[in-house]
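Tutorial handout. Part one gives the primary structure; part two gives the three-dimensional structure as tokens.
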Amino acid sequence: MTTTTIRDNASAAECEPVSIYEAIGGRAALGAAVDNFYGRLIADPELAPFFPDGVGVRHRAYVVTVLGEALGGPERYRGPDLAGAHRDLGITDAQFDRAAGHLSGTLDELAVPRPLTDQIIGIVAGLRPVIVTA
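Part two.
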């Protein structure tokens, strides 16, 4: 997915397509977002039970890579199958929506512009069929 940015004093012909990944700051920004997001999930009494041992470095790196690829970055996810990894968790639509709310709050806290946040939430919503298993 791409967005277009126009540099100051640039004509429409000089518009540069930029991926959402680039627009939000690349891998470092995604890493900060994932850390914030998991902090919120672990603090949420309804979602925390999915992470009884917290969220390890490897898991966070997988999520950064999945999101990076989905947002147009150079990453290519090669970790565990997402459907298989979530199959036995019994995640409901309501819990998925609750997590999406935390993602939106994370992106707001990190000052990601609302139009980009909405695009990111829309992209992540496409994962619902493989995450929701209850």
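Part three, for discussion. The CA atoms of residues 42 and 48 lie 4 Å apart. DSSP finds seven helices and two strands in the chain.
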